[in-house]
């Protein structure tokens, strides 16, 4: 393909040049919008991290003050730790569950199709709706536990640090497992059936086939899904904001929430911008790290498989 | 299993296929036992809260506190829904519709144009290739992380506390993924078709609408659904960029309901049902397209 590409382009070069001129105006509306509300804010957040601003008045340069105060403050390390915990726990819970469900749903059987219809319903709800539902459901006074009279269900789920963190991970999983199952379902269906038939002739059982064929074939899907989970978990905001507001105390105070509180509740936009920059760096770093782990060029290899 | 395949080697072709089928049936039975119980368990986990939301939204408050939470109401009532609808819900609903339509339609249009331009012109233009690179990079920018400068820009544009303040950043953040998905689809259109359009004297703009648009329509639907769900359920933009109750969208309205009627759980849950209803209807009509829309760009 690449060997063939140069000649047709090279011969009518003036024509292609004319064509790209005649189509390049088409990217301008999108480019302008994305620059105004994507690129400029990204540069802006870096600049704002070196300024002092209360969100209303004038913006004044502040040098490295914000960075110094945030990096030495007690809040940052804690919220990085909480962010990491939420990320790691929800990844560890979601990945095997989504894999199993995805593989299960990939089989073309009618009742599984019916199950799939119901499984995917959480995808439709907003984070705010999910958070409101679970906080009502788990209410220690009027929730499910009291109503059913089960002692073990009747706890102050969102009132104790570790419990609240556990509940958060569960609710995150409840919301996102369907999405990742959907990705796995699609990927499993792309595995050539010939591979399974060959394995069956060799006498491989279901478990063996799962570990020797399905799992290796899903390598890049696992990386994609994990990247989305891990990078996505940096941006959980709505759910935590409505469910626990970072509490009890600061037990579920993730970076995004810490940024919101610093900026929009304490009106310290400078320090909040520092946290935002850290958030961006974490996101980029994690995405690159996962790409490395996958051996790089995951998208190329997926194209080969397709 | 290896033993069961042996007994009938003479009739080779037949025996292989029949015993292979038998082996598959047996092993899938074993999977059903494990996978089956697991999947039914997960079904309960998923459906229990949803069931609870729906039945509770039809209960009276007294009923809610007194009754077993999992038993449907003995005397269903629509009072909660009436209360929610009277409490500005209609206004939030209209706002959500305006914001969603106002963001998704322009975003899809300009993303489609950009994707077309990138696919058609990239070969001869470094500019278009770098624009494409910029959009790809944009996939990695989390909205939360740039919300402070967006807030500043919106204030400076005198748009704070308007629906336009929610719409503009929503458009911008819908662009990268939409361009990626649409460009992938436009690339699949055979080059000969473009060439014959050109020979017929069609302009690029004409080709965009008469050739690319009908061929890429499924991808456009996917993109519209993906963006639409994101904007409809969006929370952080309305939270930060608006202030007055007049400008609230549904998710923010839900949150304020919870603050206002916190103890009136049935009413809060009725508002959850009403907020989700439009999407549920959409799900019932076009489930396949909705699901492929959700995994836009990832499932392909």
CATH class of chain A: Mainly Alpha
Q: What would you say the CATH architecture of chain A is?
A: Orthogonal Bundle
**Greatest chain-chain interface?**
A-B, 104 and 102 residues
The largest sheet of chain B, given as strand count, sense and whether it forms a barrel, is: none
Q: Which word captures the global form of chain A?
A: globular
For this structure, what is the CATH class of the largest domain in chain B?
Answer: Mainly Alpha
CATH topology of chain A: the name is MetI-like fold
Low-pLDDT ranges of chain A: 1-17, 296-306
Question: Count of helical segments of chain A?
Answer: 16
Distance between the termini of chain B: 36 Å
Q: Which runs of chain B of at least 5 residues are low in confidence (pLDDT < 50)?
A: 1-29
SSE string of chain B? HHHHHHHHHHHHH
What general form of chain B does the structure show? globular
Helix content of chain B: over 70%
Oligomer: heterodimer
GO biological process, one term (chain B): transmembrane transport
Protein name (chain B): ABC transporter permease
Keywords (chain B): Cell membrane, Membrane, Transmembrane, Transmembrane helix, Transport
Pfam families (chain B): BPD_transp_1
Give the tags:
heterodimer; A: 306 residues; mainly alpha; MetI-like fold; two-stranded antiparallel sheet; 2 strands; 1% strand; globular; disordered N terminus; disordered C terminus; B: 300 residues; 2 domains; 77% helix; 0% strand
Please describe what this structure looks like:
With 306 residues, chain A is mainly alpha-helical. Chain A is built from 16 helices and two strands. A two-stranded antiparallel ribbon of chain A has the order 1-2. The longest helix of chain A is centred in the first third of the chain and has 33 residues. By secondary structure, chain B is mainly alpha-helical. Chain B has two domains: 56 residues; 216 residues, MetI-like fold, CATH 1.10.3720. In chain B, helix 4 packs antiparallel against helix 5, helix 4 crosses helix 7 and helix 9 crosses helix 13. Classes of the chains: A mainly alpha (306), B mainly alpha (300). Chains A and B meet through helix 2, helix 3, helix 5, helix 6 and helix 7 of A and helix 2, helix 4, helix 5, helix 6 and helix 7 of B.
